[in-house]
Design a protein that fits this description.
Number of domains: 2
Shape: elongated
Strand content: under 5%
CATH superfamily of the largest domain: lambda repressor-like DNA-binding domains
Structural class: mainly alpha
CATH architecture of the largest domain: Orthogonal Bundle
Helix content: over 70%
CATH topology of the largest domain: 434 Repressor (Amino-terminal Domain)
CATH class of the largest domain: Mainly Alpha
Distance between the termini: 29 Å
Length: about 160
């Protein structure tokens, strides 16, 4: 699943249908710049519009993700290959996101005692109070995010 191949495939299918980028964008209710980004390989279509895009272009989602037309005898193998690639990308993204979450949690935990130390040694400093409020808001948001994404996932499994 290569973004450049997908982009070239979208462009060729669009041209086969005799559509301009603007016309395709209007049918999908998006900007023509989004279509341009797909065709240049800078991004891929959002999952929410893939089916509609495929219907307009007369292709399947599997062909879109493969970046080429697929013969019926190769269809199942390509579908499995695409699913594995998507799973791999999802796993990498989740790992990266969890690493980022851990970094922010460590930063928040380290900043709390620093705040209290500054307030202890400089009690007239009002600026650290604002920092603590911002820190607590961040911790609350982190907790809500954690609760929504991880606790719900555990319950569903």
């Amino acid at each position: 699943m290569n973004q450049n191949e997908i982009g070239r495939f979208i462009a060729s299918c669009r041209k086969e249908k005799g559509l301009t980028q603007v016309q395709l964008a209007e049918q999908l209710n998006i900007t023509n710049r989004a279509v341009s980004k797909w065709e240049t390989g800078k991004s891929i279509p959002d999952v929410s519009i893939m089916i509609k895009l495929c219907d307009i272009l007369g292709i399947t989602v599997n062909e879109l993700l493969s970046g080429e037309r697929i013969a019926m005898e190769d269809y199942k193998a390509k579908a499995e290959e695409n699913m594995l690639l998507l799973q791999e990308k999802k796993a990498k993204a989740e790992k990266s996101f969890r690493r980022l979450e851990k970094v922010w949690l460590v930063v928040a935990v380290l900043l709390t005692p620093i705040h209290f130390a500054i307030n202890y040694y400089f009690p007239d400093n009002n600026g650290t109070g604002i920092g603590l409020v911002i820190l607590f808001i961040g911790l609350i948001l982190y907790t809500v995010h954690f609760w929504q994404h991880y606790v719900i996932e555990i319950r569903l499994k």
